[in-house]
Amino acid sequence: MFDKQTSQSLAAPLVAAALAVLILLGTAAPSAGAAHPTKVTVHQGETLWAIALRARPGQDPRQEVFAIEQANHLSSATLTTGQVVMVP
């Protein structure tokens, strides 16, 4: 299909492009919302909303509350002082 000279002239740019893609993928930074999961101990009177604000400032607390509920398999928003919840 391609002669030897054409194949050789195509190989170098293709290899360079593949390396560039790999380098870019390897140095991509995670988004601001991609924080590592953390454990939070509930303080007296604290709500899921307050935990979301404390653990992920600058993020939409509604989404964070939902994520906390899902991660901890909570059937209600009732928390107990001293309870440890995972904040994804």
Walk me through what this model shows:
The chain has 88 residues and is mainly alpha-helical. It has a domain at 38-87: LysM domain (Membrane-bound Lytic Murein Transglycosylase D, Chain A, Roll), CATH 3.10.350.10. It has three helices and two strands. It has a two-stranded antiparallel sheet with strand order 1-2. The N and C termini lie far apart (53 Å).
Summary of the model, kept short:
The protein has helices at residues 4-26, 48-55, 61-71; strands at 38-41, 84-87.
Uncertain stretches: none
Q: Multimeric state of these chains?
A: single chain
Strand percentage lies at 5-15%
SS class: mainly alpha
Largest sheet: 2 strands, antiparallel
Q: If helices are DSSP runs of H or I spanning 4 or more residues, what is the number of helices? A: 3
User: In CATH, what is the homologous superfamily of the domain at 38-87?
Assistant: LysM domain
Going across the major beta sheet, what is the strand order? 1-2
Structure keywords:
88 residues, 2 strands, mainly alpha, Membrane-bound Lytic Murein Transglycosylase D, Chain A, two-stranded antiparallel sheet, 3 helices, rod-shaped
